[in-house]
UniProtKB/TrEMBL annotation:
<feature type="binding site">
    <location>
        <begin position="25"/>
        <end position="28"/>
    </location>
    <ligand>
        <name>substrate</name>
    </ligand>
</feature>
<dbReference type="InterPro" id="IPR000649">
    <property type="entry name" value="IF-2B-related"/>
</dbReference>
<dbReference type="InterPro" id="IPR011559">
    <property type="entry name" value="Initiation_fac_2B_a/b/d"/>
</dbReference>
<feature type="binding site">
    <location>
        <position position="68"/>
    </location>
    <ligand>
        <name>substrate</name>
    </ligand>
</feature>
<feature type="binding site">
    <location>
        <position position="238"/>
    </location>
    <ligand>
        <name>substrate</name>
    </ligand>
</feature>
<feature type="active site" description="Proton donor">
    <location>
        <position position="202"/>
    </location>
</feature>
<dbReference type="GO" id="GO:0019323">
    <property type="term" value="P:pentose catabolic process"/>
</dbReference>
<keyword id="KW-0413">Isomerase</keyword>
<comment type="similarity">
    <text>Belongs to the eIF-2B alpha/beta/delta subunits family. R15P isomerase subfamily.</text>
</comment>
<dbReference type="Pfam" id="PF01008">
    <property type="entry name" value="IF-2B"/>
</dbReference>
<keyword id="KW-0648">Protein biosynthesis</keyword>
<feature type="binding site">
    <location>
        <begin position="212"/>
        <end position="213"/>
    </location>
    <ligand>
        <name>substrate</name>
    </ligand>
</feature>
<keyword id="KW-0396">Initiation factor</keyword>
<dbReference type="InterPro" id="IPR005250">
    <property type="entry name" value="R15Pi"/>
</dbReference>
<dbReference type="InterPro" id="IPR037171">
    <property type="entry name" value="NagB/RpiA_transferase-like"/>
</dbReference>
<dbReference type="InterPro" id="IPR042529">
    <property type="entry name" value="IF_2B-like_C"/>
</dbReference>
<protein>
    <recommendedName>
        <fullName>Ribose 1,5-bisphosphate isomerase</fullName>
        <ecNumber>5.3.1.29</ecNumber>
    </recommendedName>
</protein>
Length: 326
């Protein structure tokens, strides 16, 4: 006999789909959306028993978890909300889930604000930052520096293949920050004009390695060679607890269609060549070793990458497990 699958609210499925298709993207936004989805699942649950309610929440968490593998903010968010579920009745469980998700989301927002203030201290009046991809944590540092009356300029890397750099450029321009947009290949040339490389993170490993958008590691190597400090803005929700026990972070591989446009060869070969049989690799993230990072800026202060494990132990203890096994 096939057992009934717990009911997962349509809105959870929609959120999972939005994360998988990158309608919702960026580690902080993904964590926030996952917590919100669990709250909605709780609100809409028609579970008749506490056990059925818990099963539904676990099923919803699993569905959200299976969308994208690299940003640890996702399992960290799910684990946080599920750990906050308490009570004897469905009504109590519902209420505590919603409260837990709300606390998580408020903390996330406040952490980003505090992190911004910490990061802004590293930026001097007149500094130029070079950015990669689009990170709300990194932008929070610029915003706080602007709020403190500093003039900041930006060199924004386009960030192939999905060009999230354009989102960064748009936000910075809204704040009246002078922006120079460059293609990724021009980064080394323009590093001489930058005072900082400023990026976010999807996950931070226990040894201080930074997992972020593909291209971050090459940028960091070039920055080190040019003497430009690399600053990683990452709320503590980006700390990957499993790496304390030796797990590695899975790097998401995305579809080749992001790399190959339909017109790729039409433009350069008169349209008579197709992409059939061409091998394409499209990793979405890479790993920057700690020796190429100067500081990890969190809401709890800034840390040399090698000492981040201390904070990780303090916040997460030594053990984790799957988010729905809490
Ligand atoms: O690599 C990306 C986004 O990748 P993608 O576009 O593939 O999701 C961002 O730098 C981090 O997620 C941090 O973002 P934030 O600081 O907003 O959490």
């Amino acid at each position: 006999m096939v057992e009934d699958q717990p009911d997962v609210a349509a809105v959870v499925e929609a959120t999972a789909d939005d994360i998988a298709t990158m309608e919702i993207r960026g580690a902080a936004a993904i964590g926030d959306a996952a917590a919100e989805a669990l709250a909605t699942q709780a609100e809409r649950s028609e579970a008749a028993t506490p056990a059925a309610f818990r099963d539904q929440l676990r099923a919803a968490a699993r569905e959200l978890y299976e969308t994208r593998p690299t940003a640890v903010s996702l399992p960290n968010a799910l684990r946080y909300v599920l750990r906050g579920i308490e009570g004897e009745t469905v009504a109590e469980l519902r209420e505590s889930t919603i409260a837990s998700a709300e606390t998580f989301r408020t903390d996330l927002e406040q952490a980003q604000e505090r992190l911004g203030e910490v990061g802004a201290n590293r930026l001097r009046d007149g500094d130029v930052v070079m950015t990669h991809c689009h990170s709300t944590d990194a932008l929070a540092c610029v915003e706080a520096a602007l709020d403190a009356g500093k003039h900041v300029e930006a060199i924004v890397k386009e960030t192939r293949p999905r060009k999230q750099g354009h989102i960064t450029a748009e936000q910075l321009r809204e704040w009246d920050v002078p922006v120079t947009l460059i293609v990724d290949n021009a980064a080394r040339r323009y590093l001489d004009d930058a005072d900082h490389v400023l990026v976010g993170a999807d996950s931070i490993a226990a040894d201080g390695s930074v997992i972020n958008k593909i291209g971050t590691s090459g940028l960091a190597v070039n920055a080190r060679e040019r003497g430009v400090p690399v600053m990683v803005a990452a709320q503590t929700i980006k700390l990957h607890p499993d790496t304390m026990t030796g797990h590695t972070v899975e790097i998401e591989m995305r579809d080749e269609s992001e790399v190959l446009s339909e017109t790729k060869y039409a433009d350069i070969a008169g349209g008579d060549r197709t992409d059939d049989g061409l091998a394409v690799e499209n990793p979405a993230f890479d790993v920057t070793p700690p020796r190429h990072v100067d500081a990890i800026v969190t809401e709890r202060g800034q840390f040399p990458p090698e000492s981040i494990v201390t904070l990780m132990r303090e916040l997460f203890g030594e053990t984790t497990g799957e988010p729905w096994e809490v």
